[in-house]
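Q: Make up one entry.
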Amino acid sequence: MSKNNWERSKTSRIYLHPPLAERIVVMYPDFNVTDSSLLDNGTHLDQPGIGLVLLHGENMDSFDYTETKFSPVTDGLPIYTVNSSCDGCDVAMEAFCDFERVPTTYFRVTVTNASPYHNDGYLGALCRSGKDTYMVQNHMEGYAPYKPNVKCWYMLKRTWQNTGENTASDGRAEMVVKAHDGVAMRWVEDGPKGHMYEAADYFRFDYSLEAHESVSFDMAICSGGADGGKSVSADDYDTARAATVAGWQDILSDICVYPDYDNKFYRDVYLQLATQCMQMLARYEGSELVATRQGDLGRFVWPFEATLVLEFLDHVGLRRYTREAYRYFCERWFTPDGDDKGRIKSNCAAWENFTGSTLWGMAEHLRYNTGDDEFEYFLPYMMDMLDWIERRRHTESSGYAGIFPSGQGSDWSDIAQFWTFTDSYNLRAINSLAEILEMRNHPDAARVRAIYNDYKQRLIEIRDELYRGHENDESFLFPHELGLSIEDSQNYSFTTDGGPILLICGIIEPGSRMMEQMENYFVSRGMFDHGLTGVLTSCAGAWDGAYHGGYGDVWYTMQSESFWVSAWLACGQREKAKKTLDALMYYGLTTEHVVSERYCSIDPWYTPWQPNGSGSARLGTMLLQYYGEKKTR
Protein backbone atom coordinates (compact mmCIF):
# COMPACT_ATOMS: atom_id res chain seq x y z
CA MET A 1 0.00 0.00 0.00
CA SER A 2 1.33 3.42 -0.92
CA LYS A 3 1.86 5.92 1.85
CA ASN A 4 -0.61 8.79 1.99
CA ASN A 5 1.99 11.50 2.52
CA TRP A 6 0.27 14.54 0.97
CA GLU A 7 3.37 15.75 -0.88
CA ARG A 8 3.15 18.76 -3.11
CA SER A 9 2.55 17.99 -6.80
CA LYS A 10 5.60 17.96 -9.05
CA THR A 11 6.07 19.81 -12.31
CA SER A 12 6.25 17.13 -14.99
CA ARG A 13 5.32 19.43 -17.90
CA ILE A 14 5.56 23.18 -18.41
CA TYR A 15 4.90 25.33 -21.49
CA LEU A 16 7.45 27.36 -23.44
CA HIS A 17 5.45 28.41 -26.54
CA PRO A 18 3.99 31.90 -27.08
CA PRO A 19 0.31 32.77 -27.55
CA LEU A 20 -1.14 32.02 -31.00
CA ALA A 21 1.55 29.45 -31.86
CA GLU A 22 0.61 26.46 -34.00
CA ARG A 23 2.96 24.29 -31.95
CA ILE A 24 2.82 22.98 -28.38
CA VAL A 25 6.29 23.29 -26.85
CA VAL A 26 6.76 21.59 -23.50
CA MET A 27 9.70 21.28 -21.10
CA TYR A 28 10.12 18.28 -18.77
CA PRO A 29 12.16 17.72 -15.60
CA ASP A 30 14.40 15.10 -17.24
CA PHE A 31 16.14 17.71 -19.42
CA ASN A 32 14.04 17.40 -22.54
CA VAL A 33 11.71 19.52 -24.63
CA THR A 34 9.07 18.44 -27.14
CA ASP A 35 7.68 20.56 -29.98
CA SER A 36 4.40 19.07 -31.20
CA SER A 37 2.00 19.71 -34.05
CA LEU A 38 -1.36 21.36 -33.51
CA LEU A 39 -3.57 19.80 -36.18
CA ASP A 40 -7.35 20.15 -36.38
CA ASN A 41 -7.72 16.71 -37.93
CA GLY A 42 -9.95 14.91 -35.43
CA THR A 43 -7.10 13.59 -33.29
CA HIS A 44 -6.54 14.79 -29.76
CA LEU A 45 -3.18 13.16 -28.98
CA ASP A 46 -0.42 11.24 -30.81
CA GLN A 47 0.32 13.95 -33.36
CA PRO A 48 3.72 14.43 -35.04
CA GLY A 49 6.42 16.26 -33.18
CA ILE A 50 10.11 16.71 -32.60
CA GLY A 51 12.06 16.64 -29.38
CA LEU A 52 15.47 17.27 -27.88
CA VAL A 53 16.80 15.43 -24.85
CA LEU A 54 20.05 16.16 -22.99
CA LEU A 55 22.03 13.07 -21.97
CA HIS A 56 25.14 12.67 -19.84
CA GLY A 57 28.14 10.45 -19.21
CA GLU A 58 30.10 8.07 -21.36
CA ASN A 59 26.99 5.91 -21.78
CA MET A 60 24.74 8.89 -22.53
CA ASP A 61 22.29 8.23 -19.71
CA SER A 62 19.18 10.30 -19.12
CA PHE A 63 18.92 12.56 -16.09
CA ASP A 64 16.91 11.21 -13.16
CA TYR A 65 13.74 13.30 -13.16
CA THR A 66 13.20 12.67 -9.44
CA GLU A 67 16.46 14.42 -8.59
CA THR A 68 16.24 17.47 -10.85
CA LYS A 69 14.99 20.86 -9.73
CA PHE A 70 13.69 23.90 -11.55
CA SER A 71 15.10 27.30 -10.71
CA PRO A 72 12.58 29.69 -9.11
CA VAL A 73 10.18 31.24 -11.62
CA THR A 74 9.27 34.89 -11.43
CA ASP A 75 7.51 37.79 -13.15
CA GLY A 76 5.29 35.58 -15.30
CA LEU A 77 8.09 34.72 -17.72
CA PRO A 78 7.89 31.23 -19.29
CA ILE A 79 11.68 30.93 -19.31
CA TYR A 80 12.64 27.92 -17.23
CA THR A 81 15.85 26.32 -16.01
CA VAL A 82 16.12 22.70 -14.92
CA ASN A 83 19.09 21.72 -12.74
CA SER A 84 20.85 18.50 -11.79
CA SER A 85 24.34 17.09 -11.34
CA CYS A 86 26.52 14.45 -12.96
CA ASP A 87 30.17 13.42 -12.73
CA GLY A 88 30.84 15.89 -9.93
CA CYS A 89 29.47 18.85 -11.87
CA ASP A 90 26.26 20.87 -11.72
CA VAL A 91 24.30 21.04 -14.97
CA ALA A 92 21.67 23.66 -15.76
CA MET A 93 19.58 23.90 -18.94
CA GLU A 94 17.57 27.05 -19.59
CA ALA A 95 14.98 27.04 -22.38
CA PHE A 96 12.46 29.40 -23.95
CA CYS A 97 10.64 30.07 -27.24
CA ASP A 98 10.56 33.12 -29.45
CA PHE A 99 7.26 34.70 -30.52
CA GLU A 100 6.95 33.18 -33.98
CA ARG A 101 3.85 31.24 -35.01
CA VAL A 102 6.22 28.31 -35.63
CA PRO A 103 8.60 29.10 -32.78
CA THR A 104 12.28 28.42 -32.39
CA THR A 105 13.18 26.94 -29.01
CA TYR A 106 16.48 28.08 -27.52
CA PHE A 107 18.61 26.27 -24.96
CA ARG A 108 21.65 27.25 -22.92
CA VAL A 109 23.40 24.46 -21.07
CA THR A 110 25.84 25.48 -18.33
CA VAL A 111 28.18 23.02 -16.62
CA THR A 112 29.87 24.06 -13.36
CA ASN A 113 32.50 22.03 -11.56
CA ALA A 114 31.17 22.24 -8.02
CA SER A 115 34.04 20.17 -6.57
CA PRO A 116 37.53 21.25 -5.49
CA TYR A 117 39.01 18.83 -8.02
CA HIS A 118 39.49 18.67 -11.77
CA ASN A 119 36.59 17.01 -13.61
CA ASP A 120 36.05 15.70 -17.13
CA GLY A 121 32.62 14.87 -18.46
CA TYR A 122 30.34 14.40 -21.45
CA LEU A 123 26.90 15.59 -22.48
CA GLY A 124 24.85 14.72 -25.54
CA ALA A 125 21.98 16.49 -27.30
CA LEU A 126 19.78 14.04 -29.19
CA CYS A 127 16.80 14.91 -31.40
CA ARG A 128 14.05 12.63 -32.61
CA SER A 129 10.94 13.06 -34.77
CA GLY A 130 7.69 11.13 -34.94
CA LYS A 131 4.58 10.57 -32.86
CA ASP A 132 5.06 12.78 -29.85
CA THR A 133 3.72 10.07 -27.52
CA TYR A 134 7.12 8.36 -27.65
CA MET A 135 8.80 11.50 -26.33
CA VAL A 136 6.05 12.85 -24.06
CA GLN A 137 5.44 9.44 -22.45
CA ASN A 138 2.05 10.28 -20.95
CA HIS A 139 -0.90 7.96 -20.59
CA MET A 140 -3.63 9.95 -22.32
CA GLU A 141 -3.30 13.45 -20.83
CA GLY A 142 -1.21 12.21 -17.93
CA TYR A 143 -3.69 9.88 -16.22
CA ALA A 144 -0.88 7.81 -14.75
CA PRO A 145 2.14 9.06 -12.80
CA TYR A 146 4.97 10.52 -14.88
CA LYS A 147 7.68 7.86 -15.25
CA PRO A 148 9.77 8.63 -18.35
CA ASN A 149 12.18 6.25 -20.07
CA VAL A 150 14.50 7.62 -22.75
CA LYS A 151 14.42 4.24 -24.49
CA CYS A 152 10.98 5.20 -25.80
CA TRP A 153 12.72 7.93 -27.80
CA TYR A 154 14.91 5.26 -29.42
CA MET A 155 11.82 3.44 -30.69
CA LEU A 156 11.36 6.25 -33.21
CA LYS A 157 12.95 5.93 -36.62
CA ARG A 158 16.38 7.53 -36.89
CA THR A 159 15.85 10.44 -39.27
CA TRP A 160 18.24 13.11 -37.95
CA GLN A 161 21.49 13.58 -39.83
CA ASN A 162 24.49 15.84 -39.42
CA THR A 163 24.16 18.60 -42.05
CA GLY A 164 27.11 20.78 -41.12
CA GLU A 165 29.72 21.48 -38.49
CA ASN A 166 27.08 22.66 -36.03
CA THR A 167 23.76 21.69 -37.63
CA ALA A 168 21.50 18.67 -37.97
CA SER A 169 18.14 18.06 -39.61
CA ASP A 170 15.52 15.40 -40.23
CA GLY A 171 14.80 16.88 -43.64
CA ARG A 172 12.33 19.42 -42.32
CA ALA A 173 13.10 20.25 -38.68
CA GLU A 174 16.45 21.81 -37.86
CA MET A 175 18.91 21.95 -34.97
CA VAL A 176 21.75 24.46 -34.55
CA VAL A 177 24.37 24.31 -31.80
CA LYS A 178 27.07 26.73 -30.69
CA ALA A 179 29.82 25.57 -28.36
CA HIS A 180 31.64 28.19 -26.31
CA ASP A 181 35.29 28.07 -25.22
CA GLY A 182 36.15 24.97 -23.24
CA VAL A 183 33.71 22.64 -24.97
CA ALA A 184 34.70 20.16 -27.69
CA MET A 185 31.80 19.24 -29.94
CA ARG A 186 31.32 16.40 -32.43
CA TRP A 187 28.54 14.42 -34.10
CA VAL A 188 28.10 10.79 -33.02
CA GLU A 189 26.30 8.58 -35.50
CA ASP A 190 26.13 5.20 -33.74
CA GLY A 191 26.22 3.89 -30.20
CA PRO A 192 29.22 1.81 -29.11
CA LYS A 193 27.34 -1.49 -29.43
CA GLY A 194 25.08 -0.65 -32.33
CA HIS A 195 22.03 -1.55 -30.25
CA MET A 196 18.58 -0.09 -30.78
CA TYR A 197 18.34 1.24 -27.23
CA GLU A 198 21.48 3.36 -27.38
CA ALA A 199 21.97 7.03 -28.09
CA ALA A 200 22.75 7.57 -31.77
CA ASP A 201 22.72 10.51 -34.16
CA TYR A 202 23.46 13.23 -31.63
CA PHE A 203 25.88 16.02 -30.82
CA ARG A 204 28.37 15.15 -28.10
CA PHE A 205 29.96 17.83 -25.92
CA ASP A 206 33.17 17.04 -24.00
CA TYR A 207 34.34 19.34 -21.22
CA SER A 208 37.34 19.48 -18.91
CA LEU A 209 36.93 21.73 -15.89
CA GLU A 210 39.14 22.88 -13.06
CA ALA A 211 37.63 23.43 -9.62
CA HIS A 212 34.66 25.82 -9.72
CA GLU A 213 35.12 26.50 -13.44
CA SER A 214 32.09 26.75 -15.79
CA VAL A 215 31.48 26.26 -19.50
CA SER A 216 28.35 26.53 -21.61
CA PHE A 217 26.92 25.83 -25.03
CA ASP A 218 23.78 26.97 -26.83
CA MET A 219 21.27 25.09 -28.97
CA ALA A 220 18.17 25.91 -30.97
CA ILE A 221 15.56 23.74 -32.66
CA CYS A 222 12.62 24.48 -34.95
CA SER A 223 10.05 22.09 -36.38
CA GLY A 224 10.19 23.60 -39.86
CA GLY A 225 6.45 24.26 -39.96
CA ALA A 226 3.88 22.66 -42.22
CA ASP A 227 5.99 22.86 -45.37
CA GLY A 228 9.43 22.61 -43.79
CA GLY A 229 10.26 26.14 -44.85
CA LYS A 230 10.70 27.58 -41.36
CA SER A 231 14.34 27.54 -40.24
CA VAL A 232 15.87 28.13 -36.84
CA SER A 233 15.92 31.85 -36.15
CA ALA A 234 19.21 33.57 -36.91
CA ASP A 235 19.23 35.40 -33.55
CA ASP A 236 21.84 34.35 -31.03
CA TYR A 237 20.74 33.14 -27.61
CA ASP A 238 21.11 36.40 -25.71
CA THR A 239 19.39 38.48 -28.39
CA ALA A 240 16.52 36.01 -28.63
CA ARG A 241 16.15 35.84 -24.86
CA ALA A 242 15.95 39.62 -24.54
CA ALA A 243 13.27 39.71 -27.24
CA THR A 244 11.24 37.00 -25.51
CA VAL A 245 11.42 38.82 -22.18
CA ALA A 246 10.30 42.04 -23.87
CA GLY A 247 7.46 40.24 -25.65
CA TRP A 248 6.06 38.76 -22.46
CA GLN A 249 6.49 42.00 -20.54
CA ASP A 250 4.49 43.76 -23.25
CA ILE A 251 1.65 41.22 -23.01
CA LEU A 252 1.55 41.20 -19.21
CA SER A 253 1.54 45.00 -19.11
CA ASP A 254 -2.10 44.76 -20.25
CA ILE A 255 -3.08 43.35 -16.85
CA CYS A 256 -5.02 46.01 -14.97
CA VAL A 257 -6.61 43.94 -12.19
CA TYR A 258 -4.51 42.31 -9.47
CA PRO A 259 -5.33 40.68 -6.14
CA ASP A 260 -5.09 43.38 -3.48
CA TYR A 261 -2.09 42.18 -1.51
CA ASP A 262 1.51 43.24 -1.10
CA ASN A 263 3.21 39.88 -1.51
CA LYS A 264 5.82 39.23 -4.21
CA PHE A 265 5.34 35.46 -4.11
CA TYR A 266 1.58 35.67 -4.64
CA ARG A 267 2.10 38.24 -7.38
CA ASP A 268 4.47 35.84 -9.17
CA VAL A 269 1.88 33.06 -8.87
CA TYR A 270 -0.81 35.31 -10.30
CA LEU A 271 1.35 36.40 -13.23
CA GLN A 272 2.35 32.82 -13.99
CA LEU A 273 -1.30 31.75 -14.02
CA ALA A 274 -2.08 34.59 -16.43
CA THR A 275 0.83 33.60 -18.67
CA GLN A 276 -0.30 29.98 -18.81
CA CYS A 277 -3.84 31.08 -19.70
CA MET A 278 -2.37 33.14 -22.55
CA GLN A 279 -0.42 30.07 -23.69
CA MET A 280 -3.72 28.20 -24.11
CA LEU A 281 -4.56 30.52 -27.03
CA ALA A 282 -3.44 28.73 -30.17
CA ARG A 283 -3.91 28.48 -33.91
CA TYR A 284 -4.27 25.15 -35.63
CA GLU A 285 -1.93 24.56 -38.53
CA GLY A 286 -3.32 26.33 -41.59
CA SER A 287 -5.98 28.30 -39.69
CA GLU A 288 -6.16 31.92 -38.54
CA LEU A 289 -8.85 31.19 -35.93
CA VAL A 290 -7.78 31.44 -32.29
CA ALA A 291 -8.68 28.30 -30.33
CA THR A 292 -8.57 28.09 -26.53
CA ARG A 293 -7.00 24.78 -25.54
CA GLN A 294 -7.47 23.21 -22.13
CA GLY A 295 -3.81 22.29 -21.66
CA ASP A 296 -1.31 19.44 -21.55
CA LEU A 297 -0.73 18.03 -25.06
CA GLY A 298 -4.45 18.06 -25.86
CA ARG A 299 -5.65 19.49 -29.18
CA PHE A 300 -9.40 19.49 -28.59
CA VAL A 301 -11.38 22.40 -27.20
CA TRP A 302 -13.88 22.02 -24.33
CA PRO A 303 -16.13 25.12 -24.44
CA PHE A 304 -17.01 24.74 -20.75
CA GLU A 305 -13.32 25.01 -19.82
CA ALA A 306 -12.30 27.45 -22.57
CA THR A 307 -14.78 30.14 -21.56
CA LEU A 308 -13.42 30.11 -18.00
CA VAL A 309 -9.96 30.89 -19.40
CA LEU A 310 -11.32 33.64 -21.62
CA GLU A 311 -13.44 35.20 -18.87
CA PHE A 312 -10.39 35.40 -16.62
CA LEU A 313 -8.32 37.00 -19.39
CA ASP A 314 -11.06 39.53 -20.11
CA HIS A 315 -11.50 40.24 -16.40
CA VAL A 316 -7.85 41.03 -15.71
CA GLY A 317 -7.28 43.06 -18.89
CA LEU A 318 -5.61 40.52 -21.22
CA ARG A 319 -8.10 41.19 -24.01
CA ARG A 320 -5.92 41.32 -27.13
CA TYR A 321 -7.13 38.01 -28.49
CA THR A 322 -10.34 37.22 -26.61
CA ARG A 323 -12.64 38.54 -29.35
CA GLU A 324 -10.95 36.27 -31.88
CA ALA A 325 -11.11 33.39 -29.40
CA TYR A 326 -14.89 33.77 -29.11
CA ARG A 327 -15.19 34.20 -32.88
CA TYR A 328 -13.64 30.72 -33.13
CA PHE A 329 -16.81 29.22 -31.63
CA CYS A 330 -18.98 31.11 -34.12
CA GLU A 331 -16.89 30.18 -37.14
CA ARG A 332 -15.93 26.63 -36.19
CA TRP A 333 -18.56 25.07 -33.92
CA PHE A 334 -21.78 27.07 -34.25
CA THR A 335 -24.62 25.17 -35.95
CA PRO A 336 -26.08 27.62 -38.50
CA ASP A 337 -29.26 25.80 -39.54
CA GLY A 338 -31.42 22.73 -39.08
CA ASP A 339 -32.98 21.35 -35.91
CA ASP A 340 -29.82 22.12 -33.96
CA LYS A 341 -29.50 25.71 -35.17
CA GLY A 342 -27.71 27.67 -32.45
CA ARG A 343 -26.06 24.69 -30.79
CA ILE A 344 -22.33 24.84 -30.04
CA LYS A 345 -20.57 21.59 -30.84
CA SER A 346 -16.95 20.62 -30.37
CA ASN A 347 -14.30 18.12 -31.40
CA CYS A 348 -14.57 16.32 -28.04
CA ALA A 349 -17.47 14.68 -26.19
CA ALA A 350 -20.77 16.51 -26.74
CA TRP A 351 -21.50 17.93 -23.30
CA GLU A 352 -25.02 19.27 -22.94
CA ASN A 353 -23.74 22.47 -21.32
CA PHE A 354 -21.39 23.54 -24.13
CA THR A 355 -23.92 25.95 -25.63
CA GLY A 356 -24.77 27.46 -22.26
CA SER A 357 -21.09 27.73 -21.39
CA THR A 358 -20.32 29.55 -24.63
CA LEU A 359 -23.31 31.85 -24.24
CA TRP A 360 -22.17 32.75 -20.72
CA GLY A 361 -18.63 33.42 -21.87
CA MET A 362 -19.72 35.64 -24.75
CA ALA A 363 -22.05 37.63 -22.52
CA GLU A 364 -19.27 38.16 -19.98
CA HIS A 365 -16.96 39.17 -22.84
CA LEU A 366 -19.42 41.93 -23.77
CA ARG A 367 -19.42 43.07 -20.15
CA TYR A 368 -15.71 43.91 -20.45
CA ASN A 369 -15.70 44.88 -24.13
CA THR A 370 -18.51 47.37 -24.62
CA GLY A 371 -17.96 48.44 -28.22
CA ASP A 372 -20.96 48.38 -30.55
CA ASP A 373 -19.11 46.39 -33.20
CA GLU A 374 -18.50 43.46 -30.86
CA PHE A 375 -22.07 43.56 -29.58
CA GLU A 376 -23.48 43.60 -33.10
CA TYR A 377 -21.25 40.73 -34.20
CA PHE A 378 -21.95 38.39 -31.29
CA LEU A 379 -25.60 39.15 -30.49
CA PRO A 380 -27.19 37.19 -33.39
CA TYR A 381 -25.16 34.12 -32.46
CA MET A 382 -26.07 34.51 -28.80
CA MET A 383 -29.78 34.83 -29.52
CA ASP A 384 -29.64 31.69 -31.66
CA MET A 385 -27.90 29.88 -28.79
CA LEU A 386 -30.64 31.04 -26.44
CA ASP A 387 -33.32 29.84 -28.85
CA TRP A 388 -31.66 26.41 -29.08
CA ILE A 389 -31.53 26.17 -25.28
CA GLU A 390 -35.23 27.04 -25.11
CA ARG A 391 -36.14 24.45 -27.74
CA ARG A 392 -34.01 21.83 -26.04
CA ARG A 393 -35.45 22.35 -22.58
CA HIS A 394 -39.01 22.17 -23.90
CA THR A 395 -38.38 18.91 -25.79
CA GLU A 396 -40.78 16.16 -24.73
CA SER A 397 -39.11 13.96 -22.16
CA SER A 398 -39.96 11.01 -19.96
CA GLY A 399 -38.18 12.82 -17.15
CA TYR A 400 -38.63 16.23 -15.58
CA ALA A 401 -40.26 18.75 -17.91
CA GLY A 402 -38.99 22.29 -18.49
CA ILE A 403 -35.31 21.36 -18.31
CA PHE A 404 -32.94 19.58 -20.68
CA PRO A 405 -33.87 15.97 -21.43
CA SER A 406 -31.41 13.19 -20.76
CA GLY A 407 -28.04 13.61 -22.42
CA GLN A 408 -24.31 13.37 -21.79
CA GLY A 409 -23.32 15.78 -19.06
CA SER A 410 -19.55 15.58 -19.31
CA ASP A 411 -16.72 13.27 -20.37
CA TRP A 412 -18.23 10.57 -18.17
CA SER A 413 -20.44 8.42 -20.38
CA ASP A 414 -23.57 8.50 -18.18
CA ILE A 415 -26.76 9.65 -19.91
CA ALA A 416 -29.16 11.47 -17.58
CA GLN A 417 -30.82 14.77 -16.75
CA PHE A 418 -27.81 16.53 -15.26
CA TRP A 419 -29.69 19.51 -13.87
CA THR A 420 -26.76 20.55 -11.67
CA PHE A 421 -24.17 20.61 -14.43
CA THR A 422 -26.25 21.40 -17.53
CA ASP A 423 -29.30 23.45 -16.61
CA SER A 424 -27.51 25.43 -13.91
CA TYR A 425 -24.99 26.67 -16.48
CA ASN A 426 -27.77 27.45 -18.94
CA LEU A 427 -29.45 29.52 -16.25
CA ARG A 428 -26.24 31.36 -15.43
CA ALA A 429 -25.70 32.13 -19.12
CA ILE A 430 -29.21 33.46 -19.66
CA ASN A 431 -28.85 35.72 -16.63
CA SER A 432 -25.60 37.15 -18.01
CA LEU A 433 -27.21 37.72 -21.41
CA ALA A 434 -30.19 39.44 -19.77
CA GLU A 435 -27.86 41.73 -17.83
CA ILE A 436 -25.95 42.73 -20.97
CA LEU A 437 -29.18 43.52 -22.80
CA GLU A 438 -30.52 45.45 -19.81
CA MET A 439 -27.32 47.53 -19.65
CA ARG A 440 -28.02 48.61 -23.24
CA ASN A 441 -31.78 48.99 -22.87
CA HIS A 442 -32.10 46.52 -25.71
CA PRO A 443 -35.64 45.68 -26.85
CA ASP A 444 -35.06 41.94 -26.24
CA ALA A 445 -34.03 42.47 -22.61
CA ALA A 446 -37.49 41.88 -21.13
CA ARG A 447 -38.03 38.69 -23.14
CA VAL A 448 -34.68 37.24 -22.09
CA ARG A 449 -35.30 38.17 -18.46
CA ALA A 450 -38.67 36.42 -18.62
CA ILE A 451 -37.01 33.28 -20.00
CA TYR A 452 -34.50 33.41 -17.16
CA ASN A 453 -37.22 33.80 -14.53
CA ASP A 454 -39.24 30.91 -15.95
CA TYR A 455 -36.19 28.61 -16.16
CA LYS A 456 -35.08 29.52 -12.64
CA GLN A 457 -38.56 28.92 -11.26
CA ARG A 458 -38.60 25.45 -12.82
CA LEU A 459 -35.25 24.57 -11.25
CA ILE A 460 -36.44 25.86 -7.88
CA GLU A 461 -39.54 23.67 -8.17
CA ILE A 462 -37.34 20.63 -8.82
CA ARG A 463 -35.09 21.64 -5.93
CA ASP A 464 -38.04 21.95 -3.55
CA GLU A 465 -39.53 18.62 -4.65
CA LEU A 466 -36.23 16.83 -4.04
CA TYR A 467 -35.71 18.60 -0.71
CA ARG A 468 -39.16 17.88 0.69
CA GLY A 469 -38.87 15.76 3.83
CA HIS A 470 -35.16 16.50 4.33
CA GLU A 471 -35.53 19.92 5.95
CA ASN A 472 -34.45 18.64 9.37
CA ASP A 473 -31.74 16.23 8.21
CA GLU A 474 -28.28 16.90 9.58
CA SER A 475 -26.83 16.35 6.12
CA PHE A 476 -28.33 16.24 2.66
CA LEU A 477 -27.05 16.31 -0.91
CA PHE A 478 -29.19 16.86 -3.98
CA PRO A 479 -28.81 14.14 -6.63
CA HIS A 480 -26.90 15.16 -9.73
CA GLU A 481 -28.63 12.63 -12.00
CA LEU A 482 -32.38 13.13 -11.69
CA GLY A 483 -34.17 9.86 -11.02
CA LEU A 484 -31.19 8.27 -9.27
CA SER A 485 -30.06 8.51 -5.68
CA ILE A 486 -26.53 9.64 -4.88
CA GLU A 487 -25.71 6.08 -3.81
CA ASP A 488 -26.84 4.69 -7.17
CA SER A 489 -24.73 7.20 -9.12
CA GLN A 490 -21.81 7.76 -6.79
CA ASN A 491 -19.22 6.70 -9.38
CA TYR A 492 -19.98 9.89 -11.27
CA SER A 493 -17.95 12.97 -10.35
CA PHE A 494 -20.64 14.45 -8.13
CA THR A 495 -18.23 16.43 -5.95
CA THR A 496 -17.35 18.58 -8.98
CA ASP A 497 -20.40 18.32 -11.27
CA GLY A 498 -23.13 17.95 -8.66
CA GLY A 499 -24.83 19.93 -5.93
CA PRO A 500 -22.06 22.47 -5.17
CA ILE A 501 -22.62 24.10 -8.59
CA LEU A 502 -26.08 25.17 -7.42
CA LEU A 503 -24.32 27.62 -5.08
CA ILE A 504 -23.15 29.85 -7.93
CA CYS A 505 -26.31 30.04 -10.04
CA GLY A 506 -28.91 31.19 -7.54
CA ILE A 507 -30.53 27.83 -6.77
CA ILE A 508 -28.93 27.34 -3.34
CA GLU A 509 -28.24 30.53 -1.40
CA PRO A 510 -24.80 30.85 0.26
CA GLY A 511 -25.25 30.62 4.03
CA SER A 512 -28.57 28.79 3.75
CA ARG A 513 -29.65 25.66 5.58
CA MET A 514 -29.34 23.75 2.29
CA MET A 515 -25.71 24.80 1.93
CA GLU A 516 -25.00 23.81 5.54
CA GLN A 517 -26.54 20.37 5.00
CA MET A 518 -24.59 19.84 1.78
CA GLU A 519 -21.33 20.77 3.49
CA ASN A 520 -22.18 18.42 6.37
CA TYR A 521 -22.77 15.62 3.85
CA PHE A 522 -19.24 15.86 2.46
CA VAL A 523 -17.56 16.46 5.83
CA SER A 524 -19.34 13.57 7.57
CA ARG A 525 -18.19 11.18 4.84
CA GLY A 526 -14.56 12.29 4.93
CA MET A 527 -14.82 13.84 1.47
CA PHE A 528 -13.31 17.16 2.52
CA ASP A 529 -9.69 16.71 3.59
CA HIS A 530 -6.66 18.96 3.98
CA GLY A 531 -8.77 21.81 2.62
CA LEU A 532 -9.62 20.03 -0.66
CA THR A 533 -13.26 19.41 -1.60
CA GLY A 534 -13.25 17.36 -4.83
CA VAL A 535 -12.35 13.76 -4.02
CA LEU A 536 -13.09 11.44 -6.94
CA THR A 537 -15.24 8.35 -6.61
CA SER A 538 -14.50 6.45 -9.82
CA CYS A 539 -11.57 4.38 -11.03
CA ALA A 540 -13.10 3.15 -14.28
CA GLY A 541 -12.54 4.11 -17.88
CA ALA A 542 -9.60 4.80 -20.14
CA TRP A 543 -8.47 7.67 -17.94
CA ASP A 544 -8.94 6.67 -14.32
CA GLY A 545 -8.39 2.99 -15.01
CA ALA A 546 -4.75 3.65 -15.86
CA TYR A 547 -4.04 4.26 -12.20
CA HIS A 548 -6.35 2.11 -10.10
CA GLY A 549 -3.84 2.07 -7.28
CA GLY A 550 -4.15 5.80 -6.75
CA TYR A 551 -7.90 6.25 -6.76
CA GLY A 552 -9.50 6.88 -3.44
CA ASP A 553 -6.63 9.31 -2.96
CA VAL A 554 -7.22 11.44 -6.08
CA TRP A 555 -8.76 14.89 -5.90
CA TYR A 556 -10.17 16.88 -8.79
CA THR A 557 -8.81 20.29 -7.90
CA MET A 558 -9.91 23.89 -8.57
CA GLN A 559 -13.46 23.15 -9.78
CA SER A 560 -15.50 22.26 -6.71
CA GLU A 561 -13.25 24.45 -4.57
CA SER A 562 -14.16 27.45 -6.73
CA PHE A 563 -17.86 26.91 -5.90
CA TRP A 564 -17.23 26.54 -2.18
CA VAL A 565 -14.78 29.44 -1.89
CA SER A 566 -17.21 31.75 -3.67
CA ALA A 567 -20.09 30.66 -1.44
CA TRP A 568 -18.10 30.85 1.81
CA LEU A 569 -16.96 34.36 0.97
CA ALA A 570 -20.52 35.37 0.09
CA CYS A 571 -21.76 34.37 3.54
CA GLY A 572 -18.77 35.68 5.50
CA GLN A 573 -17.03 32.35 6.24
CA ARG A 574 -13.59 33.63 5.26
CA GLU A 575 -11.66 31.17 7.42
CA LYS A 576 -13.05 28.22 5.44
CA ALA A 577 -12.31 29.97 2.16
CA LYS A 578 -8.74 30.69 3.29
CA LYS A 579 -8.13 27.09 4.34
CA THR A 580 -9.20 25.82 0.92
CA LEU A 581 -7.33 28.53 -0.97
CA ASP A 582 -4.15 27.70 0.97
CA ALA A 583 -4.66 24.01 0.17
CA LEU A 584 -4.96 24.78 -3.54
CA MET A 585 -1.83 26.92 -3.43
CA TYR A 586 0.07 23.89 -2.11
CA TYR A 587 -1.58 20.71 -3.39
CA GLY A 588 -3.09 22.11 -6.57
CA LEU A 589 -0.08 24.18 -7.60
CA THR A 590 3.51 23.08 -8.11
CA THR A 591 6.58 24.99 -6.94
CA GLU A 592 6.81 26.37 -10.48
CA HIS A 593 3.20 27.66 -10.23
CA VAL A 594 1.75 25.05 -12.61
CA VAL A 595 -1.79 23.71 -12.14
CA SER A 596 -2.88 20.13 -12.88
CA GLU A 597 -6.43 18.86 -13.23
CA ARG A 598 -6.04 16.49 -10.30
CA TYR A 599 -3.94 15.88 -7.21
CA CYS A 600 -2.95 12.52 -5.75
CA SER A 601 -2.00 12.40 -2.08
CA ILE A 602 0.06 9.21 -2.51
CA ASP A 603 2.04 10.14 -5.65
CA PRO A 604 3.17 13.70 -6.44
CA TRP A 605 4.04 12.68 -10.02
CA TYR A 606 0.38 12.03 -10.84
CA THR A 607 -0.27 15.26 -12.75
CA PRO A 608 -2.99 14.92 -15.42
CA TRP A 609 -3.70 17.85 -17.72
CA GLN A 610 -0.63 19.78 -16.69
CA PRO A 611 -0.53 22.71 -17.40
CA ASN A 612 -4.26 23.29 -17.02
CA GLY A 613 -6.15 26.18 -18.56
CA SER A 614 -9.40 26.36 -16.61
CA GLY A 615 -7.66 25.38 -13.37
CA SER A 616 -5.25 28.29 -13.77
CA ALA A 617 -8.15 30.64 -14.47
CA ARG A 618 -10.15 29.38 -11.49
CA LEU A 619 -7.22 29.83 -9.11
CA GLY A 620 -6.53 33.33 -10.43
CA THR A 621 -10.21 34.19 -9.96
CA MET A 622 -10.24 32.81 -6.41
CA LEU A 623 -7.22 34.96 -5.53
CA LEU A 624 -9.16 38.01 -6.74
CA GLN A 625 -12.27 36.97 -4.82
CA TYR A 626 -10.49 36.36 -1.53
CA TYR A 627 -8.04 39.27 -1.49
CA GLY A 628 -10.17 41.74 -3.38
CA GLU A 629 -9.25 43.54 -6.58
CA LYS A 630 -6.67 46.27 -7.05
CA LYS A 631 -7.14 48.07 -10.35
CA THR A 632 -4.13 49.81 -11.83
CA ARG A 633 -6.09 51.77 -14.44
